[in-house]
Amino acid sequence: MSEQKKKTNIILFSGDYDKAMAAYIIANGAAAYDHDVTIFHTFWGLNALRKDQQVPVKKGFLEKMFGKMMPRGADKMGLSKMNFAGIGPKMIKHVIKKHNAMPLPQLIEMAKEQDIKLVACQMTVDLLGLSKEELMDGIEYAGVAAYLADAEEGNVNLFI
Amino acid sequence: MSEQKKKTNIILFSGDYDKAMAAYIIANGAAAYDHDVTIFHTFWGLNALRKDQQVPVKKGFLEKMFGKMMPRGADKMGLSKMNFAGIGPKMIKHVIKKHNAMPLPQLIEMAKEQDIKLVACQMTVDLLGLSKEELMDGIEYAGVAAYLADAEEGNVNLFI
Amino acid sequence: MSEQKKKTNIILFSGDYDKAMAAYIIANGAAAYDHDVTIFHTFWGLNALRKDQQVPVKKGFLEKMFGKMMPRGADKMGLSKMNFAGIGPKMIKHVIKKHNAMPLPQLIEMAKEQDIKLVACQMTVDLLGLSKEELMDGIEYAGVAAYLADAEEGNVNLFI
């Protein structure tokens, strides 16, 4: 007799602060409305899951390059528009504070508390040379098959 | 006996002319096929709803900065690719005219005539320091809860 | 008695190598899970369908400009992030090879073999001045109406 819960599945491809904010606001909203929610992080979206401190891991040359060039965690991500070498993100964080909105790292914490499933795409984790030690604890690793299994039952599917 | 209308819900996050064109073409198409259609404008997508003239509003410093740096209305938006300091948009508008396609401001007018619901995300309106006087008349203001209420019944949900 | 097949419909708007990779990986995955899959290429996404050799076609000035400035085929596309004047794509292709992942041109070949419907948006083909001789054989040409007919029955609809 039990009705199935609605499902929201977001692919977070983008490594931009503003796009990741949009993804996590929708995800947290959907969880508050009792959806089963998954955020599947792939390519640059994986940076939202990086720990902000440097983790000593042995890597090849290209993997080291990617690791150095990509932002370490949500707070260090840039904007998709008007980034201006990092001034844009500061402006946005300032107005977020002023309007009592939530900055991205807090939105991610809230997502964890609401049991939103945070997934890292195993294939792109490998391609970008990231290791599990560098990413947040408590996340899952999966591929396109797992994504599709969720998404084909989804009510709200988005690619961000 | 009446069947429910199909629903198309588009989040327009992007402030690019070409992406907004895609959003409005899909929206107008869906409305012509008798869908209930909503475009939820957030972040840079709000610029498509800005009036093209300057509206005198009292603002703080950062809000004034955002207001100055962001394009005033659909016609002033740039391209996501090959923008070349504004030459790209001119090229695109030229070929749009040549092929009797519709430029973005006309697509937005058409959307209004087809009763497509144009929504401005209240939270990002506040963050970017926009005021209702600066945005088109006849639009709605809402948040993620309203978006999800539409989207969870949606047949076509897109994030652009 | 037969159950209808699930449907995945992807709009590929982006002309970036990494985003097109994501689109084709999801599409190939969905086809492997027996979905009916369509990739609708519009705007810069059309470049993924271009032949890599130059095809002699008579064109107007703007169309020639677009033709020259846009990448000829999947292998020549840039990255959405960290493109660094073409070094980024080389790095990505290197790690793709290293990890035995599939580069984009191969993913497109696989899509054809799996009978994924590859569609070029007629309107943007016209706007960008592309001709059928310049695009791959065996693709379809259609507009927003055909897209919506597929998408309104879709289980997974994405805009990439």
UniProtKB/TrEMBL annotation, chains A, B, C:
It comes from the Bacteria. InterPro entries: DsrE2-like (IPR032836), DsrEFH-like (IPR027396). It holds the Pfam family DrsE_2. This is Peroxiredoxin family protein. It comes from Aeribacillus alveayuensis.
